[in-house]
Amino acid sequence: MTDLPARSLWRGRLLALVGVVLVAFSLRSAVASLSPILAEVRADIDVPTWVVGLIGTAPPVCFAVFGIVTPLLERRFGLERLAIAAMAVAALALAGRAFAPNAGVLLIGTTVLFAAIGVGNVVLPPLIKAYFPDRVGVMTAVYSATLAVAAFLPPLVAVPIADAAGWRFSLGLWAVFAVLAMVPWITLAVRDRAEHAAAVDEPAPRVLDRLFRLPLAWALAATFAISSASVYACFAWLPVILVDVAGVSHAAAGALLSLFAAIGLPLSFLVPLVVTRGRWIGWLYVVALVTGIAAVAGLLLAPTAATVLWVVLLGIPQGLFPAVLVLIQVRARTREGAVALSGFAQSAGYAVAALFPFTFALLHEGTGSWSGPLLMLGALMLLAIPAGAIVARGGTVEDAWERRHGAW
Asked: A Gene Ontology MF term for this entry (predicted)?
Protein backbone atom coordinates (compact mmCIF):
# COMPACT_ATOMS: atom_id res chain seq x y z
CA MET A 1 0.00 0.00 0.00
CA THR A 2 1.43 3.36 -1.03
CA ASP A 3 1.51 5.96 1.71
CA LEU A 4 0.35 9.43 0.68
CA PRO A 5 1.38 12.60 2.53
CA ALA A 6 -1.33 13.28 5.09
CA ARG A 7 -3.04 16.64 5.06
CA SER A 8 -5.70 18.24 7.18
CA LEU A 9 -9.10 16.56 7.25
CA TRP A 10 -10.71 19.99 7.37
CA ARG A 11 -8.87 22.16 4.91
CA GLY A 12 -10.53 22.08 1.49
CA ARG A 13 -12.66 19.01 2.21
CA LEU A 14 -14.83 19.83 5.20
CA LEU A 15 -17.96 19.40 3.06
CA ALA A 16 -16.89 15.88 2.08
CA LEU A 17 -16.23 15.03 5.74
CA VAL A 18 -19.67 16.27 6.77
CA GLY A 19 -21.22 14.48 3.80
CA VAL A 20 -19.66 11.14 4.75
CA VAL A 21 -20.86 11.46 8.37
CA LEU A 22 -24.42 12.47 7.43
CA VAL A 23 -24.81 9.74 4.79
CA ALA A 24 -23.43 7.12 7.19
CA PHE A 25 -25.80 8.27 9.92
CA SER A 26 -28.75 8.13 7.53
CA LEU A 27 -27.85 4.63 6.33
CA ARG A 28 -28.15 3.03 9.75
CA SER A 29 -30.68 5.25 11.51
CA ALA A 30 -33.16 4.53 8.72
CA VAL A 31 -32.73 0.77 9.25
CA ALA A 32 -32.99 0.93 13.05
CA SER A 33 -35.93 3.33 13.37
CA LEU A 34 -38.89 1.00 12.68
CA SER A 35 -38.46 -2.09 14.85
CA PRO A 36 -38.52 -0.28 18.24
CA ILE A 37 -41.98 1.16 17.51
CA LEU A 38 -43.44 -1.70 15.48
CA ALA A 39 -45.92 -2.46 18.28
CA GLU A 40 -47.26 1.11 18.06
CA VAL A 41 -47.52 0.84 14.27
CA ARG A 42 -49.40 -2.47 14.47
CA ALA A 43 -51.78 -1.03 17.05
CA ASP A 44 -52.79 1.65 14.51
CA ILE A 45 -52.73 -0.23 11.19
CA ASP A 46 -53.00 -3.96 10.52
CA VAL A 47 -49.52 -5.30 9.78
CA PRO A 48 -49.67 -9.09 9.38
CA THR A 49 -46.85 -11.21 10.76
CA TRP A 50 -45.76 -12.23 7.26
CA VAL A 51 -45.25 -8.56 6.37
CA VAL A 52 -43.15 -8.10 9.50
CA GLY A 53 -41.09 -11.09 8.37
CA LEU A 54 -40.57 -9.59 4.93
CA ILE A 55 -39.53 -6.28 6.46
CA GLY A 56 -36.96 -8.13 8.55
CA THR A 57 -35.63 -10.00 5.50
CA ALA A 58 -35.57 -6.97 3.19
CA PRO A 59 -32.31 -5.28 4.32
CA PRO A 60 -29.75 -7.94 3.37
CA VAL A 61 -31.69 -8.90 0.21
CA CYS A 62 -31.84 -5.28 -1.01
CA PHE A 63 -28.23 -4.70 -0.04
CA ALA A 64 -27.15 -7.78 -2.00
CA VAL A 65 -29.11 -6.83 -5.13
CA PHE A 66 -27.99 -3.20 -5.16
CA GLY A 67 -24.41 -4.18 -4.43
CA ILE A 68 -24.38 -5.53 -8.00
CA VAL A 69 -26.49 -2.76 -9.56
CA THR A 70 -24.69 0.23 -8.02
CA PRO A 71 -21.35 -0.09 -9.90
CA LEU A 72 -23.31 -0.03 -13.16
CA LEU A 73 -25.17 3.09 -12.06
CA GLU A 74 -21.93 4.75 -10.92
CA ARG A 75 -20.37 4.46 -14.36
CA ARG A 76 -23.27 6.45 -15.76
CA PHE A 77 -23.92 9.01 -13.02
CA GLY A 78 -20.79 9.26 -10.86
CA LEU A 79 -20.34 8.81 -7.12
CA GLU A 80 -21.54 12.21 -5.93
CA ARG A 81 -24.75 12.23 -7.94
CA LEU A 82 -25.44 8.65 -6.92
CA ALA A 83 -25.02 9.58 -3.23
CA ILE A 84 -27.42 12.50 -3.72
CA ALA A 85 -29.96 10.26 -5.46
CA ALA A 86 -29.71 7.60 -2.75
CA MET A 87 -30.37 10.13 0.01
CA ALA A 88 -33.23 11.73 -1.95
CA VAL A 89 -34.93 8.35 -2.44
CA ALA A 90 -34.28 7.46 1.21
CA ALA A 91 -35.88 10.72 2.38
CA LEU A 92 -38.95 10.14 0.22
CA ALA A 93 -39.24 6.52 1.36
CA LEU A 94 -38.95 7.52 5.02
CA ALA A 95 -41.66 10.12 4.56
CA GLY A 96 -43.81 7.60 2.69
CA ARG A 97 -43.49 5.08 5.52
CA ALA A 98 -44.52 7.72 8.02
CA PHE A 99 -47.76 8.37 6.12
CA ALA A 100 -48.42 4.73 5.22
CA PRO A 101 -52.17 4.01 5.40
CA ASN A 102 -51.73 0.23 5.35
CA ALA A 103 -49.22 -2.59 5.55
CA GLY A 104 -48.70 -2.73 1.78
CA VAL A 105 -47.49 0.87 1.58
CA LEU A 106 -45.36 0.34 4.67
CA LEU A 107 -43.69 -2.68 3.03
CA ILE A 108 -43.16 -0.88 -0.30
CA GLY A 109 -41.71 2.18 1.45
CA THR A 110 -39.39 -0.01 3.50
CA THR A 111 -38.21 -1.92 0.43
CA VAL A 112 -37.49 1.29 -1.51
CA LEU A 113 -35.71 2.68 1.54
CA PHE A 114 -33.44 -0.36 1.81
CA ALA A 115 -32.70 -0.20 -1.92
CA ALA A 116 -31.49 3.38 -1.46
CA ILE A 117 -29.44 2.34 1.56
CA GLY A 118 -27.90 -0.47 -0.50
CA VAL A 119 -26.68 2.13 -3.01
CA GLY A 120 -25.31 4.31 -0.21
CA ASN A 121 -23.49 1.35 1.34
CA VAL A 122 -21.58 0.79 -1.89
CA VAL A 123 -20.70 4.40 -2.77
CA LEU A 124 -19.39 5.56 0.61
CA PRO A 125 -16.08 3.59 0.64
CA PRO A 126 -15.11 4.82 -2.87
CA LEU A 127 -16.10 8.38 -1.89
CA ILE A 128 -13.71 8.14 1.06
CA LYS A 129 -10.99 6.85 -1.27
CA ALA A 130 -11.64 9.70 -3.71
CA TYR A 131 -11.72 12.58 -1.21
CA PHE A 132 -9.44 11.24 1.54
CA PRO A 133 -6.81 8.99 -0.13
CA ASP A 134 -4.28 10.07 2.53
CA ARG A 135 -6.66 9.45 5.46
CA VAL A 136 -8.40 6.20 4.53
CA GLY A 137 -7.98 4.66 7.98
CA VAL A 138 -9.12 7.71 9.93
CA MET A 139 -12.11 8.39 7.69
CA THR A 140 -13.21 4.77 7.65
CA ALA A 141 -13.01 4.81 11.47
CA VAL A 142 -15.25 7.90 11.44
CA TYR A 143 -17.60 6.21 8.97
CA SER A 144 -17.89 2.88 10.79
CA ALA A 145 -18.19 4.57 14.20
CA THR A 146 -21.02 6.72 12.83
CA LEU A 147 -22.76 3.57 11.61
CA ALA A 148 -22.48 2.10 15.11
CA VAL A 149 -23.86 5.24 16.77
CA ALA A 150 -26.67 5.48 14.22
CA ALA A 151 -27.68 1.88 14.91
CA PHE A 152 -27.61 2.52 18.67
CA LEU A 153 -29.46 5.86 18.83
CA PRO A 154 -32.90 5.17 17.25
CA PRO A 155 -33.88 2.39 19.68
CA LEU A 156 -33.18 4.82 22.54
CA VAL A 157 -35.28 7.71 21.27
CA ALA A 158 -37.85 6.22 18.87
CA VAL A 159 -40.27 5.02 21.57
CA PRO A 160 -40.21 8.24 23.67
CA ILE A 161 -40.78 10.29 20.52
CA ALA A 162 -43.61 7.99 19.42
CA ASP A 163 -45.20 8.26 22.87
CA ALA A 164 -44.97 12.07 22.76
CA ALA A 165 -45.82 12.79 19.12
CA GLY A 166 -47.05 9.54 17.55
CA TRP A 167 -45.36 6.78 15.60
CA ARG A 168 -45.71 8.60 12.27
CA PHE A 169 -43.64 11.54 13.52
CA SER A 170 -41.13 9.14 15.05
CA LEU A 171 -40.67 7.35 11.71
CA GLY A 172 -40.67 10.47 9.55
CA LEU A 173 -38.19 12.37 11.72
CA TRP A 174 -35.24 10.44 10.26
CA ALA A 175 -35.98 11.79 6.78
CA VAL A 176 -34.52 15.11 7.97
CA PHE A 177 -31.05 13.55 8.22
CA ALA A 178 -31.30 12.10 4.72
CA VAL A 179 -32.21 15.54 3.35
CA LEU A 180 -29.32 17.15 5.24
CA ALA A 181 -26.97 14.47 3.87
CA MET A 182 -27.73 15.64 0.32
CA VAL A 183 -26.53 19.22 0.91
CA PRO A 184 -22.73 18.67 1.03
CA TRP A 185 -22.73 16.41 -2.02
CA ILE A 186 -24.94 18.76 -4.03
CA THR A 187 -22.51 21.56 -3.22
CA LEU A 188 -19.49 19.47 -4.20
CA ALA A 189 -21.17 18.18 -7.37
CA VAL A 190 -21.60 21.70 -8.75
CA ARG A 191 -18.04 22.75 -7.91
CA ASP A 192 -14.94 21.94 -9.82
CA ARG A 193 -14.30 18.40 -8.57
CA ALA A 194 -10.62 18.64 -9.42
CA GLU A 195 -10.17 20.71 -6.27
CA HIS A 196 -11.69 18.09 -4.01
CA ALA A 197 -11.18 14.59 -5.36
CA ALA A 198 -8.56 12.47 -6.96
CA ALA A 199 -8.51 12.29 -10.72
CA VAL A 200 -11.16 9.98 -12.14
CA ASP A 201 -9.96 7.13 -14.32
CA GLU A 202 -11.78 6.28 -17.49
CA PRO A 203 -14.20 3.51 -16.61
CA ALA A 204 -12.67 0.15 -17.44
CA PRO A 205 -15.11 -2.07 -19.31
CA ARG A 206 -16.58 -5.03 -17.47
CA VAL A 207 -14.71 -4.29 -14.24
CA LEU A 208 -17.35 -6.02 -12.13
CA ASP A 209 -17.23 -9.14 -14.33
CA ARG A 210 -13.47 -9.37 -13.84
CA LEU A 211 -13.80 -9.57 -10.06
CA PHE A 212 -15.55 -12.94 -10.32
CA ARG A 213 -12.23 -14.35 -11.55
CA LEU A 214 -10.02 -12.91 -8.79
CA PRO A 215 -9.39 -14.75 -5.48
CA LEU A 216 -8.72 -11.41 -3.75
CA ALA A 217 -12.25 -10.20 -4.55
CA TRP A 218 -13.74 -13.46 -3.27
CA ALA A 219 -11.62 -13.22 -0.11
CA LEU A 220 -13.02 -9.77 0.64
CA ALA A 221 -16.54 -11.04 -0.08
CA ALA A 222 -15.95 -13.90 2.37
CA THR A 223 -14.71 -11.39 4.96
CA PHE A 224 -17.90 -9.38 4.56
CA ALA A 225 -19.97 -12.57 4.78
CA ILE A 226 -18.36 -13.65 8.07
CA SER A 227 -19.12 -10.31 9.70
CA SER A 228 -22.57 -9.59 8.30
CA ALA A 229 -23.99 -13.13 8.50
CA SER A 230 -22.80 -13.71 12.07
CA VAL A 231 -24.18 -10.35 13.21
CA TYR A 232 -27.57 -10.93 11.57
CA ALA A 233 -27.78 -14.42 13.07
CA CYS A 234 -26.84 -13.19 16.54
CA PHE A 235 -29.31 -10.32 16.51
CA ALA A 236 -32.02 -12.73 15.42
CA TRP A 237 -31.24 -15.70 17.66
CA LEU A 238 -28.61 -15.03 20.34
CA PRO A 239 -31.10 -14.09 23.10
CA VAL A 240 -33.10 -17.26 22.44
CA ILE A 241 -29.93 -19.38 22.44
CA LEU A 242 -28.77 -17.85 25.72
CA VAL A 243 -32.12 -18.54 27.38
CA ASP A 244 -32.21 -22.14 26.12
CA VAL A 245 -28.60 -23.26 26.56
CA ALA A 246 -27.23 -20.93 29.26
CA GLY A 247 -30.39 -20.69 31.34
CA VAL A 248 -30.32 -16.89 31.63
CA SER A 249 -33.50 -14.85 32.04
CA HIS A 250 -35.05 -13.02 29.12
CA ALA A 251 -33.98 -9.69 30.63
CA ALA A 252 -30.41 -10.91 31.01
CA ALA A 253 -30.42 -12.23 27.44
CA GLY A 254 -31.47 -8.80 26.18
CA ALA A 255 -28.69 -7.16 28.18
CA LEU A 256 -26.16 -9.63 26.78
CA LEU A 257 -27.33 -8.85 23.24
CA SER A 258 -26.71 -5.16 23.99
CA LEU A 259 -23.23 -6.11 25.20
CA PHE A 260 -22.66 -8.01 21.95
CA ALA A 261 -23.68 -4.94 19.95
CA ALA A 262 -21.55 -2.60 22.08
CA ILE A 263 -18.40 -4.58 21.26
CA GLY A 264 -18.64 -3.23 17.72
CA LEU A 265 -18.25 0.43 18.72
CA PRO A 266 -14.61 0.43 19.92
CA LEU A 267 -13.70 -1.97 17.11
CA SER A 268 -15.12 0.48 14.57
CA PHE A 269 -12.59 3.08 15.81
CA LEU A 270 -9.55 0.85 16.20
CA VAL A 271 -9.68 -1.67 13.36
CA PRO A 272 -9.49 0.80 10.41
CA LEU A 273 -6.35 2.34 11.93
CA VAL A 274 -4.81 -1.11 12.33
CA VAL A 275 -5.65 -2.14 8.76
CA THR A 276 -3.93 0.91 7.25
CA ARG A 277 -0.68 -0.22 8.88
CA GLY A 278 -0.73 -3.18 6.51
CA ARG A 279 1.41 -5.70 8.37
CA TRP A 280 -1.30 -6.37 10.99
CA ILE A 281 -4.02 -7.41 8.55
CA GLY A 282 -3.36 -11.12 8.88
CA TRP A 283 -3.51 -10.91 12.66
CA LEU A 284 -7.01 -9.37 12.50
CA TYR A 285 -8.21 -12.51 10.77
CA VAL A 286 -6.43 -14.69 13.33
CA VAL A 287 -8.08 -12.82 16.21
CA ALA A 288 -11.52 -13.04 14.57
CA LEU A 289 -11.08 -16.77 13.93
CA VAL A 290 -9.80 -17.65 17.40
CA THR A 291 -12.38 -15.59 19.31
CA GLY A 292 -15.27 -16.75 17.13
CA ILE A 293 -14.36 -20.42 17.45
CA ALA A 294 -13.72 -20.04 21.20
CA ALA A 295 -17.16 -18.42 21.67
CA VAL A 296 -18.91 -21.21 19.75
CA ALA A 297 -16.99 -23.87 21.69
CA GLY A 298 -17.87 -22.17 24.98
CA LEU A 299 -21.57 -22.03 24.16
CA LEU A 300 -21.53 -25.68 23.11
CA LEU A 301 -19.40 -27.16 25.90
CA ALA A 302 -19.78 -24.86 28.92
CA PRO A 303 -22.54 -22.33 28.25
CA THR A 304 -23.17 -21.52 31.91
CA ALA A 305 -19.53 -21.36 33.01
CA ALA A 306 -18.65 -17.97 31.50
CA THR A 307 -21.65 -16.75 29.50
CA VAL A 308 -20.56 -13.12 29.47
CA LEU A 309 -17.11 -14.10 28.19
CA TRP A 310 -18.60 -16.17 25.35
CA VAL A 311 -20.77 -13.22 24.28
CA VAL A 312 -17.80 -10.84 24.35
CA LEU A 313 -15.70 -13.24 22.30
CA LEU A 314 -18.56 -13.72 19.85
CA GLY A 315 -18.70 -9.95 19.37
CA ILE A 316 -15.06 -9.55 18.40
CA PRO A 317 -15.38 -10.90 14.81
CA GLN A 318 -17.59 -7.85 14.18
CA GLY A 319 -14.24 -6.10 13.69
CA LEU A 320 -14.04 -7.66 10.23
CA PHE A 321 -16.79 -5.25 9.11
CA PRO A 322 -14.76 -2.02 9.49
CA ALA A 323 -11.72 -3.99 8.29
CA VAL A 324 -13.34 -4.85 4.97
CA LEU A 325 -14.55 -1.25 4.53
CA VAL A 326 -10.89 -0.18 4.57
CA LEU A 327 -9.68 -3.12 2.53
CA ILE A 328 -12.15 -2.27 -0.25
CA GLN A 329 -10.25 0.99 -0.61
CA VAL A 330 -6.66 -0.17 -0.16
CA ARG A 331 -7.06 -3.31 -2.29
CA ALA A 332 -8.20 -1.23 -5.29
CA ARG A 333 -5.88 1.07 -7.19
CA THR A 334 -8.46 2.92 -9.28
CA ARG A 335 -11.72 4.60 -8.41
CA GLU A 336 -13.60 2.32 -10.79
CA GLY A 337 -11.98 -0.70 -9.14
CA ALA A 338 -12.99 0.53 -5.68
CA VAL A 339 -16.61 0.98 -6.74
CA ALA A 340 -16.78 -2.46 -8.34
CA LEU A 341 -15.02 -4.12 -5.40
CA SER A 342 -17.35 -2.41 -2.92
CA GLY A 343 -20.38 -3.63 -4.84
CA PHE A 344 -19.04 -7.15 -5.31
CA ALA A 345 -17.94 -7.71 -1.69
CA GLN A 346 -21.09 -6.25 -0.18
CA SER A 347 -23.44 -8.02 -2.59
CA ALA A 348 -21.92 -11.45 -1.93
CA GLY A 349 -21.62 -10.82 1.81
CA TYR A 350 -25.20 -9.64 2.22
CA ALA A 351 -26.47 -12.54 0.10
CA VAL A 352 -24.99 -14.92 2.68
CA ALA A 353 -26.36 -12.73 5.48
CA ALA A 354 -29.85 -12.92 3.98
CA LEU A 355 -29.84 -16.73 4.03
CA PHE A 356 -27.86 -17.43 7.18
CA PRO A 357 -30.41 -16.58 9.95
CA PHE A 358 -33.15 -18.45 8.07
CA THR A 359 -30.94 -21.52 7.60
CA PHE A 360 -29.94 -21.19 11.25
CA ALA A 361 -33.61 -21.42 12.25
CA LEU A 362 -34.36 -24.33 9.90
CA LEU A 363 -31.46 -26.33 11.32
CA HIS A 364 -32.67 -25.74 14.86
CA GLU A 365 -36.21 -26.68 13.89
CA GLY A 366 -35.03 -29.85 12.20
CA THR A 367 -32.72 -31.04 15.01
CA GLY A 368 -34.47 -29.61 18.07
CA SER A 369 -31.10 -28.42 19.32
CA TRP A 370 -28.87 -25.37 19.05
CA SER A 371 -25.74 -27.49 18.55
CA GLY A 372 -26.18 -27.69 14.78
CA PRO A 373 -26.72 -23.94 14.28
CA LEU A 374 -23.77 -23.11 16.54
CA LEU A 375 -21.56 -25.52 14.61
CA MET A 376 -22.73 -23.80 11.41
CA LEU A 377 -21.66 -20.48 12.94
CA GLY A 378 -18.27 -22.00 13.74
CA ALA A 379 -17.95 -23.24 10.14
CA LEU A 380 -18.65 -19.69 8.96
CA MET A 381 -15.77 -18.43 11.11
CA LEU A 382 -13.44 -20.91 9.40
CA LEU A 383 -13.76 -18.87 6.20
CA ALA A 384 -11.34 -16.46 7.88
CA ILE A 385 -8.48 -18.91 7.16
CA PRO A 386 -8.47 -18.77 3.33
CA ALA A 387 -9.76 -15.20 3.25
CA GLY A 388 -7.09 -13.91 5.60
CA ALA A 389 -4.33 -15.81 3.80
CA ILE A 390 -5.27 -14.18 0.48
CA VAL A 391 -5.96 -10.65 1.74
CA ALA A 392 -2.78 -10.48 3.84
CA ARG A 393 -0.63 -11.00 0.74
CA GLY A 394 -1.22 -7.40 -0.27
CA GLY A 395 -1.65 -5.95 -3.74
CA THR A 396 -4.77 -4.70 -5.48
CA VAL A 397 -7.41 -6.28 -7.67
CA GLU A 398 -5.93 -4.37 -10.60
CA ASP A 399 -2.48 -5.87 -9.87
CA ALA A 400 -3.98 -9.34 -9.60
CA TRP A 401 -5.77 -8.99 -12.93
CA GLU A 402 -2.70 -7.64 -14.70
CA ARG A 403 -0.54 -10.51 -13.45
CA ARG A 404 -3.03 -13.04 -14.82
CA HIS A 405 -4.52 -11.39 -17.89
CA GLY A 406 -2.54 -8.31 -18.92
CA ALA A 407 -3.69 -4.67 -18.93
CA TRP A 408 -6.54 -3.76 -16.53
From this structure: transmembrane transporter activity
